Q: What sequence folds into this?
């Protein structure tokens, strides 16, 4: 990566301890504009804690997170969202009984203009449904016929699509996706990967957490390998094989000297 | 989602067969659906339909069995009068149950509020209007305590409100010294306390202000629950509080506001209770919490939260009223009413479980 390009989201020396367990041990992190950065690591390597720190779900004990070069301190996922970082959680964080449009706008509803909105707090369903439909169409998701149907009537892939569309609609700086293909079948995974590329094509940098090596190697520009609470190496998928990545991740292979600082 | 775009290059061999697989992701109208499945989906989308159908059927059945004595404007509006108090309390209960909670203290809050309204006027000589405001404040305070314990101390709503039920009821008896304020005194000195007992007559039909308040309240809450962000948040919290939190709902403040609003509505029920009884009695409304839960359950609101319509609650309260009056006019032992209501509760929950399967 060109040294003159500033990372859009970075972490330096992040530490998070849970009692006697150190989940993050002076971990670093860099996400550059317009790229898909995959984060991989063995179970317990601390990658979830890293992601939680970046998405505001966890406050690190030490270290600094910078967004666009400016230090930020997130105390809740809401803070991170307000700063332009949207997260697609593994459990999707959708309310099954609510409609697609209601879910997309949950927590940031649009109200009707004029007295209806200010006095009667009436929701502008028309505007919300139109935006929701537009966002889903942009991502090629419009086989969903009825935007007001409940999310629980959708398939797993469609729900994932709604969650991604929500993140893409509101994320202005970074989108974090936690295991977006873990619960999906082959065909649906394929669609979600296409969706990730579509989002990237619109210039949005993405952090992708995944256990699925083929998926990681297919879409990622760079791969952040997390091991024992810190960043072990950052590799380009074109330079390494999947088994190398797994070997690095599990400690079977030592990182090359020049990679450790990358 | 559309078919994989030409730009996408499958990275795994087994994916090459995907081009030959079915291209539609979602087709929502399966032609092979049975009538039963379609019915279930309709009910899933319209949760108040079941209680409405039951209400209409029971009206027709009792109309046929009992005849004009039942099917008169007077009798039908009498049902409304009899369910108005329970209905108002059930509206409060609905809000709490939609968040996957339960409020066992609704009846106690109602009675304490009515006692405060009466005693503040007669014991301290406050203007009745001010006493009524104090009654609402007490209702809101009780609700706030419930909400705080549920949202911030994270105690189960059942336990919190079970405890508060006892605490509030005991406070009510201690404070009122078991004293009833007589109806004559109220109508002579503070008639506004009996405001909801006044009525409008249209022919044989009698609509008390309490009935009108009940119906208006239900429609107001229906609007709030369906057409404001707050209402959508109430449903989202009942559905899945963690998901709601992550997607940006401020769960704790919303939960508190639900319990406070529930307390305020109970205070309104307390005021309407004075209108219905004429007097202020600390022993009134003993069964209001159970009756309100009955109306909510028969109204098709899921006790697991997040599902149901407040219109269903109104129909549920009316169904109870129709059975009670219908069976009495038909000349049966009143125990048959309880038996039928018991069966209705079990049937309502069974139907709720069945409808939920439509989502799968």
A:
């Amino acid at each position: 990566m060109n040294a003159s390009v500033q990372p859009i989201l970075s972490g330096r020396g992040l530490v998070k301890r849970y009692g006697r367990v150190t989940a993050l041990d002076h971990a670093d992190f860099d996400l550059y504009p317009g790229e898909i950065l995959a984060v991989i690591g063995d179970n317990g390597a601390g990658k979830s804690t890293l992601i939680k720190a970046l998405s505001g779900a966890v406050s690190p004990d030490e270290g600094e997170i910078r967004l666009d070069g400016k230090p930020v301190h997130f105390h809740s996922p809401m803070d991170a969202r307000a700063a332009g970082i949207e997260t697609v959680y593994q459990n999707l964080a959708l309310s099954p009984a609510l409609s697609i449009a209601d879910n997309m706008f949950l927590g940031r509803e649009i109200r009707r203009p004029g007295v209806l909105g200010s006095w009667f707090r009436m929701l502008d369903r028309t505007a919300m449904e139109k935006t929701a439909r537009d966002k889903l169409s942009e991502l090629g998701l419009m086989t969903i016929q009825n935007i007001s149907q409940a999310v629980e009537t959708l398939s797993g892939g469609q729900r994932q699509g709604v969650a991604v569309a929500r993140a893409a609609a509101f994320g202005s700086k970074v989108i974090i996706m936690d295991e977006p293909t873990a619960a999906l079948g082959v065909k649906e995974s394929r669609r979600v990967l296409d969706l990730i590329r579509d989002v990237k094509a619109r210039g949005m940098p993405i952090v992708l957490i995944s256990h699925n090596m083929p998926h990681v190697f297919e879409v990622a520009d760079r791969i952040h390998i997390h091991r024992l609470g810190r960043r072990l190496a950052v590799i380009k998928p074109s330079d390494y094989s999947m088994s190398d990545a797994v070997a690095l991740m599990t400690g079977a292979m030592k990182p090359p000297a020049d990679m450790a600082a990358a | 989602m559309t078919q994989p775009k030409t730009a996408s290059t499958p990275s795994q061999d087994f994916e090459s067969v995907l081009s030959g697989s079915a291209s539609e992701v979602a087709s929502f109208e399966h032609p092979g659906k049975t009538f039963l499945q379609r019915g279930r989906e309709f009910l899933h989308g319209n949760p108040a339909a079941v209680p409405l159908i039951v209400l209409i059927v029971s009206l027709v059945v009792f109309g046929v069995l009992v005849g004009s004595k039942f099917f008169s404007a007077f009798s039908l509006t009498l049902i409304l009068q009899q369910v108005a108090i329970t209905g108002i309390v059930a509206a409060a209960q609905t809000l709490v149950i939609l968040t996957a909670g339960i409020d066992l203290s609704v009846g106690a809050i109602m009675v304490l509020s009515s006692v405060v309204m009466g005693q503040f006027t007669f014991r301290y000589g406050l203007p009745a209007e001010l006493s009524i405001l104090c009654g609402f404040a007490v209702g809101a305070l009780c609700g706030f305590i419930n909400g705080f314990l549920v949202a911030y101390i994270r105690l189960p709503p059942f336990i919190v409100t079970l405890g508060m039920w006892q605490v509030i009821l005991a406070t009510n008896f201690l404070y009122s010294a078991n004293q009833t304020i007589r109806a004559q005194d109220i109508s002579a000195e503070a008639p506004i306390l009996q405001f909801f007992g006044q009525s409008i007559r249209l022919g044989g039909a009698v609509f008390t202000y309490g009935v009108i308040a009940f119906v208006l309240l239900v429609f107001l809450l229906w609007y709030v629950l369906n057409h404001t962000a707050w209402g959508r948040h109430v449903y989202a919290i009942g559905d899945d509080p963690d998901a709601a939190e992550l997607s940006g709902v401020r769960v704790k403040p919303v939960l508190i506001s639900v319990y406070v609003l529930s307390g305020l509505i109970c205070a309104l029920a307390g005021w309407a209770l004075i209108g219905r009884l004429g007097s202020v009695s600390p022993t009134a409304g003993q069964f209001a919490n159970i009756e309100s839960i009955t109306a909510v359950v028969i109204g098709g609101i899921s006790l697991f939260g997040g599902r149901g319509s407040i219109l269903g609650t109104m129909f549920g309260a009316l169904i109870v009223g129709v059975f009670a009056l219908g069976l009495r006019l038909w000349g049966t032992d009143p125990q048959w009413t309880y038996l039928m209501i018991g069966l209705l509760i079990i049937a309502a929950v069974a139907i709720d479980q069945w409808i939920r399967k439509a989502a799968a």
About this structure: The radius of gyration of chain A is 19 Å. The CA atoms of residues 46 and 229 of chain A lie 5 Å apart.
